[in-house]
Amino acid sequence: MSDKKKMTVPDFKKFKQEGRKFCHVTAYDYTTASIVDDSECEIILVGDSLNMIMLGNQGTVGVTVDQMIQFIKPVVKGAPNTFIVGDMPFGSYNVSPEKAIENANKMLMETNCDAIKLEGGIEMAETIERMVKAGIPMIGHIGMTPQSAASFGGFRMQGGTPEGAKKVIEDAFAIEKAGAIALVLECVPSVVGAAVSKAVSIPVLGIGAGPDVDCQVLVTQDLLGMYGEFKPKFVKQFANIRQAMVDGLNAFHQETIDGIFPGTEYSFNKKVEIPEI
After folding, report:
1. Average pLDDT, rounded, for the chain
2. What's the pTM value of the predicted model, to 2 decimals?
């Protein structure tokens, strides 16, 4: 069991200044959150990726604020020593800054998570700035933004041209200026990840952004080999939990049909006189 100390908002700037690397994973339920809490991983994102991983849908669009709250609550309970970020779903912040603040307030107040994340660069900078001024710790998300993936042809690398790289860096500057405590940078060439990390004073949380960012992000189900055959290029599987679970279930099934389980060890063996019925 880890004896880690929970990361705080000021730690984001401190870690960046010290050049300290850290990591960021996902959880969507109490049990997984408690396992992450026992690890050395500093941050949990309760992402809108739950729409795919937990609800079985095709993309991130469609999950609601109330659903996000339902999933964030048990994660906060399960990981008291881990910094918890709640993800704002599509439609909850792109109407107006006022609506974004209202929904973020609801998420924070009902879940007690530590920060809020939303997607978008320059176009969302004003909204982020307004939310920060309202007292909401904010994390931006640029590069490949899953909620708007359809508008650029699906889940594809971004920043692969000089113009594209320039746009990513400008987005990063806008997020920093707006007052975000950090930014997620997804699916960009490693050189772009390095350039963004060097350009801004807030930590860059990279998922598929190369080795030179401040923090590495992966979906827990991906890194532990739990999510079936789908495996993005940037995912390294550090364990194969899915196969271990299948093997365990098959062993249970086999011992059941063979009459091995439950044996005496797993049965209540008190002698009871059974009356005639």
Report:
1. 92
2. 0.91
